[in-house]
Amino acid sequence: PPATVYQAENATISQGLVESNWAGYTGTGFVNVDNAVGSYVQWSVVPAAAGSTGLTIRFANGTTANRPMSITVNGTVVSANQAFNATGAWTTWSEVTVNATLTAGTNTVRATSTSATGGPNLDKLTLGTVGGGGAPTAAE
Ligand code: GCU
């Protein structure tokens, strides 16, 4: 059924672990993707309707360097080198939003590490209002 919030720990994970050792996550934990190119989290999402919407990913990056990921929707790249910048601590969570067009029914959203450091720790994916574009990307 349609839903707005999709926890990373309930998604499909390739090269990563569900963990809960850093506070501030929602749900029951977060995903620590492996520090490797190609590690990913893949969500199956059902929007309320087809159309353009924001995909907001909540994350933490306790390093001092960007942890870029490629964001795809149904296999098509919507943000090739999406920045997940340092948040200051693994317990400090931030959000980035990319816009994408979703179809009616189930869509596949995948976030894949594009550097050897891997992506950040990933908490959840939130869909914006269909047709409403994305929520603003949180300032760092
Ligand atoms: C630390 C941290 C992890 C994080 C990892 C990383 O080990 O505890 O939560 O995922 O660094 O660099 O990716």
Structural account:
0% of the residues lie in helices and 47% in strands. With 140 residues, it is mainly β. The chain has a single domain, classed as Jelly Rolls (Sandwich). The N and C termini lie far apart (33 Å). The model has no long low-confidence stretch (mean pLDDT 94). The site of alpha-D-glucopyranuronic acid has 6 residues, from loops. The site of alpha-D-glucopyranuronic acid (GCU) has 6 residues, from loops.
Note the total helix count.
Answer: 0
CATH architecture: Sandwich
CATH class: Mainly Beta
How many domains make up the coordinates?
1
Distance N to C terminus: 33 Å
User: Helix coverage percent of residues?
Assistant: under 10%
What is the CATH homologous superfamily assignment? Answer: Galactose-binding domain-like
Indicate the low-confidence ranges by residue numbers.
none
Radius of gyration: 14 Å
Structure summary, number of beta strands: 11
Mean pLDDT, to the nearest integer, reads 94
Hetero groups bound? Answer: alpha-D-glucopyranuronic acid
Oligomer: single chain
Provide the β-strand percentage band: over 45%
Order of helices and strands: EEEEEEEEEEE
CATH fold naming: Jelly Rolls
Structural class, from helix and strand content?
mainly beta
Largest sheet: 6 strands, antiparallel
Backbone shape: globular
Topology:
Layout: E1 5-7, E2 12-14, E3 16-19, E4 30-33, E5 40-45, E6 51-60, E7 69-73, E8 76-82, E9 93-102, E10 107-113, E11 121-127
Antiparallel strand pairs: 1-11, 2-5, 3-4, 4-11, 5-10, 6-9, 6-11, 7-8, 7-10
This protein binds alpha-D-glucopyranuronic acid.
